[in-house]
Task: structure prediction
Amino acid sequence: MPFVTGGGGGSSGPVSALTKAVGQAGHGFIVGDVVRSNSANQYTKAQATSVANAQVVGIVSEVAGVDNFTLLMSGYTTALAGLVSGTVYYLDATTAGAVTSTKPAGYGQPARPVYVSISGTDAILIQGDLEDNSVSTFTTTAIRKLTGPGSTTINSPDGDYMIVVDNSGGGGISTVNLPASPTDGQNVVVKDSGGNAATWNIVINGNGKNIDGSGTYTINSNRQSVTLVYSADVTVAGEWVIV
Result:
């Protein structure tokens, strides 16, 4: 694959290579795959599913066989296809090793630019930083108080909520039902404001969506609070993540 290395001039100083010939048994790559280095000191497909998985080191510029390929770490490539000129392409969150023209913005999806296209087949690699989207940006749009025992349901599929639960009157548990069809990135905070959740628990119901792998989450410590962020990409069905 052609790339630009700069002019000559007879310099005898160190040379910085833009490509690297790699021997890796059964690598499984094709030209254009975006890769990172893993803990086994091998290359694997990068993906915008976490900061660790999005540490791009380059793209595959040539495949010489099932055990050999060339890694392009910087510079210019002419062997891609289907690009839209003038577009920045980001590491994809859905398909490992792929790129997308849509900047990832979902919770836990780092936005890592890979290259900018200058024609349908040509692109220049970008040595850019990634944006970490795993940090919650909570903006309260509604605060709701529940005096227990009882239940409350968040019916809005978007907007951020703080639910304060006061069970100091005793008598039973309280239940907070999360939105049935939440929006990616939606935040909900639930707080034991009464200070007796150890006696009268507060049950958070995912309402059809899991909460860190379970259908419910129980607050059972006095004055405890929990922050939940909905991510459409943690699982196929989406899931509430405790942060």
Remarks:
- DSSP finds no helices and 20 strands in the chain.
- The two ends are 44 Å apart (CA to CA).
- The chain has two domains: 19-125, 140-242.
- The longest strand covers residues 56-65.
